[in-house]
Amino acid sequence: MTREVNILTDHDVAEGVKHDINDLENEQIGLEQRVDVLEETIAKQNKTIERLLQIVEQRGGNLESDAEEAPVGKQKPARDNALNNATRKSLYAAMGLASTSQLKAAAALAPLKTGGSYVKDRESSGKLLRPDWASSFAENVAWHDPMVKFLRAKGPTLVPALTSAILAQKSDQELLDRLEVVFKNAEFRKAGRVGGDGNIERDEEKQPRTEAEEKKENRHRGRITKACQLKCEERIATIEESEMHIPTEHRYILQPVYQSTDESDDTDVVDPDTETEADAEVHAKTTRKPWITRPPAYRHSETEAAIVIIDAALMERRRQYERNNKGKTSAHPRIRGKTKDTPLPFIRGNNHLRIPRGAIDTDWLARHPEQDTPFRIHDSDQICFFAGKKEVVVFVAQ
């Protein structure tokens, strides 16, 4: 067997190395071309990023569109949605409205003075803004300066994207310009020219509600008020008979506006809070179906636990009453349901009785910063309920 042996000469080695060098040079050229393409792409991306940063800075970090803030009758300024949202929500808060309200709700509040003013609210110890929608924004000068100060203080709380540092860079005139935008849009909604969905709305002044509509609404409101008053009276009687003691600071739980709502678990059931004009026959068949008691979502769990204890005594009182009258009359059955998201109430009279801060769910209050006002909340963290000498519930907020 013969084995072949290849012997490379110096010339062969040199030619092989030259070939390898040529391949490497070609590869280097290809890589350099690739680098050129990537550098050009990076340059384009940097320009795009710079434009986006400029847009974000102009809009205060909030890129959501806000059709409500388009000014009426004048050229639109550079859009700043965070500032627009804060301006609108601050105006709502100053008027005692929830931040989720619509401009038409603000426009529905009638002014109490020509040119607008801050008026003392009968339901609180503070003052509420009442703009004069029938006059121009310039004629509403009485509340301009206080509203600008309120916007600077409350805006960052209502819209976190608008920080105090950003607001500090805004002049008072810039804030007044934003207020004028909101004012004019609300003014148009009052006139019925612009609807929240872009459709023309009914002019409430030219086309008032019919007599039947007024009667139905008054009847509905009266039933709700009566139901809340009866529930209050029954709880008060239960507390007195059970020798429970409610500290004065916490007697807000015995006010009608603080009561849970009772809602039907079926559309045929008629109750004070979900009244429908069902015919008598349907009502007779369904009236004994239980109502769903829905506690307000702002109520702290410890407060709810105390009220459950009170209501347990109340139910025993009802059962005793039914035994005494041999079942001739009985209260409508109720079951406890999910919480209902409602605003904190203003409690009339009672020396401006307010809800202690510790009795409010902290997560709920964080989601509704516009409700955190001295008109509604008393800065006290302790919640105590007593039944005679026995302590029922003690809660101290951390």
UniProtKB/TrEMBL annotation:
It comes from the Eukaryota. Residues 193-220, 260-284, 323-350 are annotated as: Disordered. The keyword Coiled coil applies. Residues 262-279 have a biased composition (Acidic residues). Residues 14-55 form a coiled coil. The keyword Coiled coil applies. Keywords: Coiled coil. Residues 199-217 have a biased composition (Basic and acidic residues). This is Uncharacterized protein.
